[in-house]
Amino acid sequence: IEKTFIMIKPDAVRDRKTGLIIDRIERCGLTIEKMEKCELDEDLVKVHYAHLADKPFFGDIVDFMTSGPVVKMVVSGLSAVSKMRTLMGATNPLDAAPGTIRGDFANDVNANIIHGSDSLENAAIEIERFFG
Ligand code: GTP
Ligand code: MG
Q: What is its EC number (predicted)?
């Protein structure tokens, strides 16, 4: 059983997509272990996206992720990390397949609805970062 860190981004929370997204996660046989709605401070977002700090769009990510509340979660299940990445779809919603969360609900590469850890190692780091 793996655990992964998932975050519903401000656009989806604002648009009341939280329930739809949770439904898709649970229908895949994954379990919501922890869940909390909260606002992120700028410093935490900068640490979380540090691997993109030298990109021209880094400021847009920070502005977007602090633009309103997010819903953060720990999700568990068999192959939870890769299963969630498949369920989420490609980073750019224009490339995300229909049937994926981003493919069905997102239109914008920055405001792309959901975050999911990209490896088991990063999942552990991110769960500690956001839930302590
Ligand atoms: P996350 O689950 O959010 O970490 O997305 P990811 O793992 O699919 O992609 P990555 O970690 O490479 O990028 C993190 C976030 O930066 C993405 O989810 C986007 O919101 C944003 N991002 C990535 N590439 C671009 C880009 O080319 N332009 C803009 N504006 N934002 C981008
Ligand atoms: Mg990522």
A: 2.7.4.6
